[in-house]
Amino acid sequence: MADSVALFTSIGLSEQKAKETLKNEALSSALKDAVVQAQKLLGSTNIDKGTGTLLYSMASRLRDTRRLAFLTEHIAKRKITTDLQLSAALDYVKSHPQDPMDQKAFETACGVGVVVTPEQIEDAVELIIRKHKQQLLAERYRFNMGILMGEARAALKWADGKMVKNEVDMQVLHHLGPKTEADLEKKPKKEEEKQNNTLMEQLRGEALKFHKPGENYKTEGYVVTPNTMNLLKQHLEITGGQVRTRFPPEPNGILHIGHAKAINFNFGYAKANNGICFLRYDDTNPEKEEEKYFTAIKDMVEWLGYTPYAITHASDNFQCLYELAVELIRRGHAYICHQRGEELKGHNAPPSPWRDRPIEESLVLFERMKNGMFAEGEATLRMKMVMEDGKMDPVAYRIKYTPHHRSGDAWCIYPTYDYTHCLCDSIEHITHSLCTKEFQARRSSYFWLCNALDVYCPVQWEYGRLNLTYTVVSKRKIIKLVETGTVRDWDDPRLFTLTALRRRGFPPQAINNFCARVGVTVAQTTMEPHLLEACVREVLNDTAPRIMAVLEPLKVTITNLPANAQVQATYLLTICTIRCTGVMEKGYKRLTPDQSVGLRHAGYIISVQRVIKDGSGKVVELEVTCASSDSAEKPKAFIHWVSQPLKCEVRLYERLFLHKNPEDSAEVPGGFLSDINPNSLQVVESALVDRSVSKAKVFDKFQFERVGYFSVDPDSTADKMVFNRTVTLKEDPGKI
Asked: Which residues form the Glutamyl/glutaminyl-tRNA synthetase class Ib catalytic domain (predicted)?
């Protein structure tokens, strides 16, 4: 094992990734063969990280291992040098399984030997900028440069991405010149509308790459059968050529920030192209589903501003899915198997001894499964196919004697994701099945099952996941955080579930704006939390009312307040409370015994006359005199204060974890639970806030002047308000 780990780390894999790879025997065997062959071809054991990454990606994605040596040679000899070329190569070998391989056609399809010159890049970018020149000059650096990059990459398929970006940047600079102060100013209001338009533009741009409804067969890798065109014709008659997408979460947990991208992509793509989007619950595992998750998912979709065309459930189709499973058996594509669950785990399960059992026998046994005549785990229905990751004969149905939240005890057999997903897409006539990149390995099985049953086959398109550093989002790990008391629940404001972000005070439009800035990327994206927080500040700066609040109050008595002060300014009374941070510190520019300050917005300047301390020497009160700001010398600073305030609790949040990647054992050897930031929550129990917030509702948001942005927490009561700090006023440079 140590030799294999050393071999894999030599091509750039982390030790953790190398060990994970060894758990998959098929993948590790293919990767070993590829690395050893590449070393022989290169005449060296030193393989650069770029080549190593391509070898790993090829080994993990290649279904037909007969082509392993062929593809390895192209990678080692640097004929294939980018992931884009590799994807084209994998698609080609998958769609051309016959021998011998037409090497010339293969290399043409993969862009081997294609050289895109700087002049060609310059000319193509110039044409694209000319197309958008009027809008670019009008919006300057507020223009969505992603549109230019998207069109440039489409026009220059095999060009170096960095060269394309540099050319776009250079030509934009030529037309606009350096950024001016106006370009750097805070964006104007109606930011939400502008950012949503930006996302819509990106998604309309993606429509140029995606197939048109009814033209599924034009998609690379799509399998065409003798009945495909007839099925597509029927599909168009039903949909009228309308774009149809779906957001299909499992109702066994709370949505997180990564789901926000999926929601924006699925609902946004449909909206941008005048289509419809379904919210479909993938409720095929009754053991893990709870009603609270159904409700929370719908609430979060609507909170982000989207309305589903219809809310559906995979369970709506249980009868239809069962009948299709019977048909799959009749066609000889599925069989009843009695291997136990532990035998089927991993990618190297032994072949089933029941794979070739007679069709009639499997039909009878499947009926017996449905009628509850087998124990759990005693029988499964398996499909006769090999998935792209090498997994053989995935399970289509398994037995579970758990009542379903909707169908009760009507069923004791439940379909799996691999069986259900594509068929529900087909039943709902989805045009674009948008899913994250890890489902790419299931694309061929998606096409296979629809074609095996001779039903309408949608097209699966993959996009990159959105991840954040300094957090965990897996259900299992969040449950562990809750069970250990590290966080209170799924909506603890230190988490990045959508319910937690709402509780912390993040506006939904800020999350949508963040997704727009991340963009519609194919590659996985890992972002820093401060980039999301910047989007939050932009929205709250325009929308949050400003009020006075003091987190560390100090009593200040004005001894000479004019008798008519209450008439002139009813909010300024004899007893005022102001911020004490920094008081008495040498060199501090605010209130000291030798330095006066102004009361913010009050029209008075105060000067310290007497400092009152308690028995321990702590300052507990100041007696001051005041003078009108019209008659006194202008002070060096103004201090914020509250009068007749409300006492409240304020919760100050910091990052939950100390390291960027708490799940990485190389970075955090003790595991994510050992990486908890002890200062992730600070509770201020005696903060004071202006009385004007007394009628605020849960989730109302405010800017506490000079302190930060805060939101009313659901724990608030009629007797005591609780505020969560959403974000600080300015980004902490130490967090970047």
From this structure: 242-541
